[in-house]
């Protein structure tokens, strides 16, 4: 645990920890020893220049990509070593993911897209659809329930994607540039919806962004530089947090 985490979260065990993560794609080193803690209920922004390894870090933490070296734990469980079956289970129940371009299933309506994670988790069709409708309502897109992704605006699609990521009540949500393709008003609506819901449910959010306005929604911000989390930059954030508190 870095000094910054000690100060911000005294005595608290992180929900997800990454230690010394390395990942190379051919000759490109995407991660070169990245370490990070994500605490329960915390909204953590990861910023950094293009190619600094932000998406790769998110993929490793969410169990989508296996690191070449280092460890990722979730609630104490080593998920970098978990079976594909266990990772699939975690992605269905404990983790939610939102990408820059929603990645909704184009053939399904907004309602069916949001109901899908519940069906995959074994919930029956009727209750799944009812709950999906409630989540669309919550994100202000109930009126789009019967539309397919191609018939919605970018902001509407992203709010549907958020509903899909949160509908199962995950412990952690991984959002990779969730507002990157939106204008500023739609971006604000998406971030407000995400932050409000995460706070209410106590969901941890790992938010990747290169936009300072989006990062400002987070409790804490870390910088990734050349595949390593920049501890110096993190310390600045801690000083700022201490100033705000004191
Ligand atoms: N699937 C892949 N195959 C090959 N190289 C990859 C792959 N994914 C990432 N890389 C490389 O790893 C490095 C880090 O990429 P990554 O996408 O993690 O960075 P990023 O900070 O998210 O970038 P951006 O802000 O542009 O999305 C880059 O050099 C990239 O080209």
From TrEMBL:
<dbReference type="Pfam" id="PF00005">
    <property type="entry name" value="ABC_tran"/>
</dbReference>
<dbReference type="InterPro" id="IPR017871">
    <property type="entry name" value="ABC_transporter-like_CS"/>
</dbReference>
<dbReference type="InterPro" id="IPR003593">
    <property type="entry name" value="AAA+_ATPase"/>
</dbReference>
<dbReference type="InterPro" id="IPR027417">
    <property type="entry name" value="P-loop_NTPase"/>
</dbReference>
<keyword id="KW-0067">ATP-binding</keyword>
<feature type="domain" description="ABC transporter">
    <location>
        <begin position="16"/>
        <end position="245"/>
    </location>
</feature>
<dbReference type="InterPro" id="IPR015854">
    <property type="entry name" value="ABC_transpr_LolD-like"/>
</dbReference>
<dbReference type="GO" id="GO:0022857">
    <property type="term" value="F:transmembrane transporter activity"/>
</dbReference>
<dbReference type="InterPro" id="IPR017911">
    <property type="entry name" value="MacB-like_ATP-bd"/>
</dbReference>
<protein>
    <submittedName>
        <fullName>ABC transporter ATP-binding protein</fullName>
    </submittedName>
</protein>
<dbReference type="InterPro" id="IPR003439">
    <property type="entry name" value="ABC_transporter-like_ATP-bd"/>
</dbReference>
<dbReference type="GO" id="GO:0005524">
    <property type="term" value="F:ATP binding"/>
</dbReference>
<dbReference type="GO" id="GO:0005886">
    <property type="term" value="C:plasma membrane"/>
</dbReference>
<keyword id="KW-0813">Transport</keyword>
<keyword id="KW-0547">Nucleotide-binding</keyword>
<dbReference type="GO" id="GO:0016887">
    <property type="term" value="F:ATP hydrolysis activity"/>
</dbReference>
């Amino acid at each position: 645990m870095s000094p910054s985490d000690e100060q911000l979260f005294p005595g608290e065990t992180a929900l997800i920890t990454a230690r010394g993560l390395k990942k190379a794609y051919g000759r490109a080193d995407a991660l070169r020893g990245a370490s990070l803690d994500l605490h329960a209920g915390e909204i953590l922004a990861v910023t950094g220049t293009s190619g600094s390894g932000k998406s790769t870090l998110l993929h490793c933490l969410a169990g989508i990509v296996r690191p070449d070296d280092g460890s990722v734990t979730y609630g104490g469980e080593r998920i970098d070593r978990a079976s594909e079956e266990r990772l699939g289970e975690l992605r269905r129940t404990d983790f939610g993911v939102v990408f820059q371009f929603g990645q909704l299933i184009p053939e399904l309506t907004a309602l069916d897209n949001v109901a899908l994670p519940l069906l995959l988790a074994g919930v029956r069709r009727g209750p799944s659809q009812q709950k999906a409708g409630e989540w669309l309502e919550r994100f202000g897109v109930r009126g789009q329930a019967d539309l397919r992704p191609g018939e919605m605006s970018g902001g509407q699609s992203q709010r549907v994607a958020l509903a899909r990521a949160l509908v199962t009540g995950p412990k952690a949500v991984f959002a990779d540039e969730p507002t990157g393709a939106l204008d500023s008003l739609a971006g604000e609506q998406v971030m407000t919806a995400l932050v409000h819901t995460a706070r209410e449910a106590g969901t941890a959010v790992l938010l990747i962004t290169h936009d300072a306005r989006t990062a400002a929604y987070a409790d804490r911000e870390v910088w990734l530089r050349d595949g390593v989390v920049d501890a110096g930059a993190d310390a600045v954030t801690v000083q700022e947090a201490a100033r705000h508190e004191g």
